[in-house]
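We emphasize that the prediction below concerns an isolated chain of 385 residues; any contacts that depend on oligomerization or on bound cofactors are therefore not represented. The input was used exactly as deposited, without trimming of termini.
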Amino acid sequence: MGTYADKGDEAALLDAVDQFIERDVRPFARKFEADDSYPKEIADRLSQLGLFGATIGGEYGGLGLSARIYTRIVERVSACWMSISGIFNSHLIAANAVERFGTEEQKQRWLPMMARGEMRGGIALTEPDCGTDLQAIRTEAARDNDGLVINGTKMWITNSMYGNFLAVLVVTNPIAEPRHRGMSLVLVEKQDGYETSKLEKLGYNGIDTGSVHFNNTRVPADNLIGMEEGKGLQQVLVGLELGRINIAARGVGLARACLEESIAYSQLRKAFGKPICNHQAIQFKLADMATRLEAARLLVERAAHAYDDGIRCDMEAGMAKLFASEAAIQNSIEAMRIHGAYGYSKEYNIERYYRDAPLLAIGEGTNELQRIIIARQLIEKSKAD
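Result of the prediction step, given as a token string:
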């Protein structure tokens, strides 16, 4: 797959993203976030920039970006308003599943529309009684003469309300053992008849997060990704490698915003006759924040390079996601302490960062799960050596 960097356009693309952020996002982010209202105009602008096709191959109308460049875009966006990155990330995980595992007919049918942003959606995995344990899902897709009939409920689904399709993880064989052999991934268009309702959240506002209800929702049989049952979980897990790298890049962006705003504030705010940046206690905080940021960025770059090289990178992605998300949380706490009462005020961005950051430790697999993945990979590699 060709990349933007190969075409010599990386700098131009990143510059366009920076201009988009300053013109179309920063002036409006606080209002959209406070109202928890969907930023449709911003989403449309994402489409015009081509970001709904960021990692989709050029042969299908996408930008064909490498993960390395993609993470730089995510960091930039998240340093302004993290919610925006979720609009195109969830969409791209679904597109990744189609591009990697779909039939050529499915790729030709779906990917150009996804790349243009005509079809915008995400992945529907989590359910009311299961999150991390995806093998415990209960949403079923039963075959009949007309295709597949889906029944069940999904929770915490991004792009479920304002998007128009979802890649849904379903059970197609309830008696399969192990359970993952009975799981499949199906593309479902909103016009097929699923219902959504908005979920209220602590942070990550503006983006639409909803519950999705399937009540005898009928879809054509050829919407089954790869046209083969029993492969759904594996298809999803491969896509989540990119998702976890994205989450890690969000963490870098958020940690960066906390640091930059803390440095600026510490030079303006005075205590005991001098700017607080001259107090050793504040300097220690800034130094730790900067170190966490740089370490997180390096882990993200390592994971992105591994992904681009086409090697298994669940350990690298897990490490990046674990460390960068924790860095974002710690930096948001320190930023609030540096800002004092102003950090607690909605007049500043710090309280938003403080509310947004914890999501990163939960989304795309909890940090507890990442530790398990990392440890298992270490043991496997030790045995191989």
